[in-house]
Amino acid sequence: MDENSSDQNGSDHNSSQKYDYDLFVIGTGPGGEGAAMQCAKDGLSVAVAEKYSRIGGGCTHWGTIPSKALRYAITSTMAALKNPTFREMGINVRPTLEQLRRGTQTIIGQQVTMRQSFYDRNNVPIFKGQARFVSENAVSIDGDEPITAKKFVIATGSRPYRPAGVDFSHPRIFDSDTILGMNEKPASMCIYGAGVIGVEYASMFRNLGIKVNLINTRSKLLEFLDDEIIDAISYHLRDQGVVIRHNESMEKIVPEDDGVVLHLKSGKRVKTDAFLWANGRSGNTDDLGLEHVGIVPNSRGQIEVDEHFQSAVHHIYAVGDVIGVPSLASAAYTQGRAAGMHILGKVDGNLRLYDIPTGIYTSPEISSVGKTERELTAACVPYEVGQAQFKSLARAQITGQTTGMLKLLFHRDTLQVLGVHCFGANASEIVHIGQSVMSPEGANNCITYFTETTFNYPTMAEAYRVAALNGLNRLF
Ligand SMILES: Cc1cc2nc3c(=O)[nH]c(=O)nc-3n(C[C@H](O)[C@H](O)[C@H](O)COP(=O)(O)OP(=O)(O)OC[C@H]3O[C@@H](n4cnc5c(N)ncnc54)[C@H](O)[C@@H]3O)c2cc1C
Predict the structure, then answer these.
(1) Is the pLDDT of residue 368 over 80?
(2) One domain, residues 335 and 299
(3) For the chain, how many structural domains are there in total?
(4) Structural domain of 193
(5) Which has fewest Cβ within 10 Å: 150, 319, 329, 351?
(6) Whose CA is nearest to atom 26 of ligand 1?
(7) What positions does the entry give for NAD(+) binding (predicted)?
(8) Separation of 18 CA from ligand 1 center, angstroms?
């Protein structure tokens, strides 16, 4: 495109022309919804396209929501079945995958209805079908008459990367989009790839009593986490019976009638009833007609954007999984809103786009925000550590959820909270208390908040007071 035809936020792009819409959003996942709602509520005329039969994105239909709903069904059902009272009563049933999945469709239905109401209330039409750019300011839905817009947000998400030579049509071989459709509960499963999705499924399937082999291509699990949390999750997964192999890489995957054999370059072979490929994702950019607008995706199919989520073609923004890490529904939504604010010419109100928390729904759950000890040590920041073990909290003792820890990292001179790391029951909720204290700039971010505040008793939130006192007591 002609570089001069758009200014930094694309606001003058072809401004003399009339368009069907001010903004056209491609994709109705959290990224697309965030952008569409932000702009529609501020008076822009907005339309969206969705190629799947229902709105909500991969997030609602084959990613976050179904995986978390299944996890809840598995953990709650298995906890009940392990209850000694039930055993005494002779209740010893084995739920099928189909039974455990049943509630998921209800939750998805509720999500779709709720999200549809957002589009309806804000007068945002949804065009059903595959959107493709036919020119810089026009998309066609399934080849129909082009729809024009002044600005675009691409929020088309991602899909599992599928290496050549692996037969994903085989009934025993799955990727993270197809695994939720697995019919029979296998006795054993091999998961290749130990990123967030691989580790979450390893934990979930192990809870279901499946023998799990987790194959990691790196030397540690979830390397971006704090080392102590990595050690904790590695210990607990092994303790539960997950076999973890690090530093491995696949040579070939051979499906057989009675199982799947993974051949590793190290010479090892792993045979299991089912195989889950969870190694890498690609941005959904093929078949988007990007060649008509001059955007060239990278080798992973992702669109490169600047800090405002503008692509190389400034009136076309991209948010969510299609731009790569952190590839979280939470981040996609915030990015969509931030892109929307930029389109509206507003500042993004400090959406803390670079301080995205991590929530990993393993058993035990993991969550963190801010710096790790490794990062602070490398940056020579004089920090101190405060810890609270869940086993010493009354609430954890009452609920029997004593596995876990909260760890606060804070600057030993300014007392600023620099990192919050948690594992254990409800870690993904607990972390947000620390995040809100960490968020303000300057003196308002201070660890003494936790020692000067009365917490309900008994609560898990109390862990903050315990950890803060523990850390402050180390100062001299
Ligand atoms: C198993 C699993 C578990 C996960 N768990 C979590 C979690 O616990 N927490 C978390 O924060 N994140 C989680 N994620 C990640 C999260 O689901 C994604 O980060 C999120 O869905 C990305 O949102 P998005 O809007 O970018 O894309 P999506 O939600 O994937 O939506 C993209 C939409 O665009 C549509 N589309 C694509 N191309 C076109 C086109 N050309 N025309 C029209 N429509 C199109 C697609 O049909 C889709 O509906 C998980 C992912 C997986 C796979």
Answers:
(1) yes
(2) yes
(3) 3
(4) 173-279
(5) 351
(6) 320
(7) 193-200, 280
(8) 32
Residue 157 is labelled as binding a ligand: yes
Residue 180 belongs to a domain: yes
Q: What digits encode the pLDDT tens for the residues 62-103?
A: 999 999 999 999 999 988 888 888 778 887 778 888 999 888
Residue 165 inside a domain? The answer is no
The answer to the question of whether 321 is labelled as a binding residue is yes
Q: Which two tokens stand for residue 290?
A: 């990007």
**What tokens were used for 52?**
């799947």
Within a domain: 13: yes
Residues with CB under 6 A from ligand 1: 26-32, 49-52, 57-59, 63-64, 67-68, 130-131, 155-157, 176, 197, 284, 288, 320-322, 327-330, 332, 359, 361
CB-CB contact of 316 with 308 (8 Å): no
What are 153's two structure tokens?
């947000």
Ligand 1 mean position to 352 CA, how many Å?
A: 21
Select from 52, 73, 318 the least CA-distant residue to 177.
52
Say what the pLDDT of residue 324 is.
Answer: 96
Is residue 218 domain-shared with residue 309, that is, in the same domain?
Answer: no
Q: Is 90 annotated as a binding residue?
A: no
Closest residue by Cα to atom 15, ligand 1, is: 328
Q: Which of 242, 262, 279 is the last residue of a domain?
A: 279
- Enter the tokens of residue 49: 């396209």
Q: Whose CA is nearest to atom 39 of ligand 1?
A: 156
> To test ligand 1's pocket by mutation, which of 179, 305, 321, 325 has the most ligand atoms within 8 angstroms of CB?
321
How many whole angstroms from 57 Cα to the centroid of ligand 1? 5
Please indicate, yes or no, whether residues 378 and 463 belong to a single structural domain of this protein.
Answer: yes
The two three-digit tokens of residue 238, written as one number: 């092994």
User: Does 336 lie in the same domain as 234?
Assistant: no
Question: Which CATH number belongs to the domain containing residue 329 in this structure?
Answer: 3.50.50.60
Determine the distance separating the centroid of ligand 1 and the alpha carbon of 463, expressed in angstroms: 34
Annotated ligand binding at 197? The verdict is: yes
Cα 301–chain centre separation? 18
pLDDT in the model for residue 12: 45
Determine whether the annotation assigns residue 193 to a binding site.
Answer: yes
The residue to mutate among 116, 152, 153, 156, having the most atoms of ligand 1 within 8 angstroms of its beta carbon, is 156
Indicate the pLDDT class of residue 17, thresholds 50, 70 and 90: low
